[in-house]
Design a protein that fits this description.
7-stranded parallel sheet, 37% helix, 15 strands, Rossmann fold, Epimerase_deHydtase, alpha/beta, 344 residues, 3-stranded mixed sheet
Amino acid sequence: MKVLVTGAAGRVGANMVRRLRAAGADVRAMVMPGDPQRAKLDTLDGVEIVEADLGDQHAIDAASRGVTHVVHLAAQLVRGDTPVDRFYDVNAFGTLRLLEGVVKNGGVERFLLASTDGTYRPGDPPLVPLPEDTPQEPADYYGTAKLLGEVILRNHAAQYDIPFAITRFATVLDPVEARQHFRVGSVRALLRRVELGRDCNIWPLFREHPEMVGLFDEAVGEAPDDTAVALSGPNGSWSIHLLDVRDAVEGVYLALTVPAAAGRAFNITAAEPTTFEHGADVVAELDGVPRLDVRLPLTWRLEMTVDAARDVLGYRPRHDFRGMVESAIAADRGAADSFIPARI
């Protein structure tokens, strides 16, 4: 098995490359030209690294030559100052160019596309939890671009007989990142997405309650940013499905290799969602910080089912939120090397 991994210097990508090498696969790691994060790959033996922009068909054709499998992880998550057409070009037509490269080079045994819970309109989820057959009506740039990528993949797969699978990730974090969640600073940053207006994947959350940042700031007062904080609303605690990068990698590996995965999409996330109440309890206990409760005028629950991945792939996520924070603490002490951090 020779696997092309795009986005190989990313949060999931570097860990995916390591997982594939551990399984004995040959790996061609595709990175953006000049990406400083490519240094993550320097410690991995036997990895061929190629530079290619998702807008460069010639470079993509060369990167696709001679591979038997593709793991397409490369994406731009935050638009920022990127023009909308370039943002769509990266996240949707980058997938098209990669598929064209595969076709020109004779096809592959499996093309794996990493997609997102953002295709389900996460700021106003139609169901709790969200199964894979939930209507995909994202209403934001990133979710729409990724959904277009899914459609392009399905159509190209039918046109050119490309075996494929899709994984839709929840919020992917490495343990170091997880340790910063459910704190005053991270929750304030979440709520301040209201400032992006409709250029935000959770804008519907603020449609009727644009004042939530002010309510939150009033409630927490001068509490330090690392203070643990639990959000609740009229229907109980807020909740979110988080995904440890190590479980994300395992879900992708299974979708890439299990025969029954062909032609299907799978939600990939933790076994259970994390409530903000539980998350705050964990960081308060393990890091010894104060804890606050804040009540807001709505309850947000972004949760996904994992039944299909469990039943078809044999997916068994091993890391809950407590385990992620414990892994981060162990890494701080030099006692663990189970993941490559998102940033080096």
